[in-house]
Every structure is written in structure tokens, then in C-alpha cells.
Amino acid sequence: MNKIPNRQVICETLMEHAATDKDIVVLCSDSRGSASMTPFSKEFPEQFVETGIAEQDLVSISAGLAKCGKKPYAASPACFLSTRSYEQCKIDCAYSNTNVKLIGISGGVSYGALGMSHHSAQDIAAMSAIPNMRVYLPSDRLQTKCLVEALLADEKPAYIRTGRNAVEDVYEEGNVPFEMDKATVVCEGSDVAIIACGEMVKPAKDAAALLKEQGISATVLDMYCVKPLDRDGIIKAAQNAKAVITVEEHSPFGGLGSMVAQVVGAECPRKVINLALPDAPVITGTSKEVFDYYGLNAEGIAKTAAEAIK
């Protein structure tokens, strides 16, 4: 069982490059511990900026550094980064197409018992609505490293959401199929297509295994690149299926499910069912308890998929 959170992988990957690339700068809003960026701050103090609890300043300072030729990575809780500093993300980063990578840590319901004030169930919709802003939700630590490596090579703004806890590996070390801005086919089937992002990819993969035991063949698509959305990948998966199931740790409005439904409806009409968090404050509990309660687990996904193709 993997014990390395995706946020830790981001720190480790940045540290690997920061030793030789002095333009890499990490910024935190009193969140270096939560973001697993403490090792970076200690190893590269001259390449680290602490803004305190000031998310708007965090983003604006990052944009300023980017305009000076730096490569800023701004890490803050997703719930605050995508709301308190929304205008700065929109104007300072996206409007001017500035090279700022926004890292939304502890996304979704990662903060558990802290409740709705600390949950980020709207960030996919909000960030995706901003022109020039890309949105990524890596599914495991291995894909996270590939994504960060790719983002280090470009100069465009992006929002990356990660959870708080370690997640089980979706892929195998040394064998991570990754193409920037292209969804990854985890497995292929002919009865139902399951399209998931972030921490929902592993339950989707496990659901495919449960469906196989029932004689149902499932495609699982890892849509880590929510924006730009891999339309071709969606169309191909939908064309080979009787129904499409989307799974996301997000509100039912404006997220992955809405985007996939638009593509499928326009290009290859099929039944689309969106599994997401409810349009209400979620129950109190750990991520697993919340997922289990709302059917965002392997059993719930498999049940929905099986019923969809009856």
C-alpha cells in the first residue's frame, strides 16, 4: 500500500530540479506543512516565499515573480486558493497568460471533519471557467511526477488539485503511460465507459474488475486533464460503450460530468450518469467514509454501471 501523498511527490520533483534551476520558486500561504513543502523551504530557503495566511497575495506575488522570469509554484489549500484568490487567479495569472502553477492541496473532502468551509467541491468548475487556465487532477503519485515534469517544461498557467492523503497506485513504477493533455486508458472494454479524475480513478479501476466478474466489460479513462479536456478520448470511449459513467470528487454541477455530457451529447449520444458529491454539505467523516456513503467507491461505481446497461 502506497504511503506517499501526491503533494509530497510534487515537493520531491520540484526539489530535484530546483538544485540546478534557480528560477524555480515555491510559495506557500502558511501551508508549507500541509503542502509537504517544508523540505523544499529548508533545502532552498532562497527559492521559497512564505506569504502567511494571505492567498490573494500568494497568487499576485507569484504572478509578479513569473513576470521577472521566475517559475513560481504556489501551494495553498484548494478550498481557499480557488475561492479567496479567484480574482487573482483570473486576472494576474490567466488573463495575462502568466507562468504560475497553482497547487490546490487537500482538495475535495480531504479535510474531512472540518466541513464545508474546508471542502473544495467547486474548484474544477470555477478554475475551468477561466480562459487560459488549465486544470489537472493527477490520479496517483506516479502520474503526479509525470505531470509536474511536464509542467516544468512549459510557461503557461495551470491549476493542479491533489488530495491530502496517500492514494493507492493506479499505475506501476517504470510503466506509467503519460501523454500531456491526453486521457490515459486504464483498461478497455465494450459495455460501459467509466471516466474518472483524481482520487476517483482507482475506485473506477477496481469497479472495472468487479464488473468483469459479472461478465461486464468496462473501459476506464483517467481524465487527469480536465482542461484541456481530451474530447477525442471521450468520443472513442463512448462510441464503444452502451453507457458512460463519470466519477468525480466534486459538485454535480460544472465539473467533469458536465463536460463529458456536453461532448457525448454532441458527438455520440449515449446515456451519461454522473457520480459526484451531492449539492449539499457532505457528511462528516474521512475521505473514505464520505466516498463510501455516497457510492463513490468501487462497489457503488460498479452497481451504477451495471444498472446503466440493463
Summarize the structure.
The protein is α/β, with parallel strands linked by helices. It contains twelve helices and twelve strands.
Provide keyphrases for this structure.
single chain; 310 residues; alpha/beta; Rossmann fold; seven-stranded mixed sheet; five-stranded mixed sheet; 12 helices; 12 strands; globular
Topology:
Elements: H1 6-18, E1 24-28, H2 38-43, E2 48-50, H3 55-67, E3 71-77, H4 78-81, H5 86-95, E4 101-105, H6 123-128, E5 134-136, H7 141-152, E6 158-161, E7 184-187, E8 192-196, H8 201-213, E9 218-222, E10 225-227, H9 231-239, E11 243-247, H10 256-267, E12 271-275, H11 287-293, H12 298-308
Parallel strand pairs: 1-2, 1-3, 3-4, 4-6, 5-6, 8-9, 8-11, 11-12
Antiparallel strand pairs: 5-10, 7-9
Helix pairs in contact: 1-7, 3-5, 8-12, 9-10
How does this structure look, described?
This protein is globular. The strands form two sheets. The protein has a seven-stranded mixed beta sheet with strand order 2-1-3-4-6-5-10, sandwiched between helices. It folds into two domains: 6-161, Rossmann fold; 184-308, Rossmann fold, CATH 3.40.50. The protein is an alpha/beta fold and 310 residues long. The protein is built from twelve helices and twelve strands. The chain is 37% helix and 17% strand. The two termini are 35 Å apart.
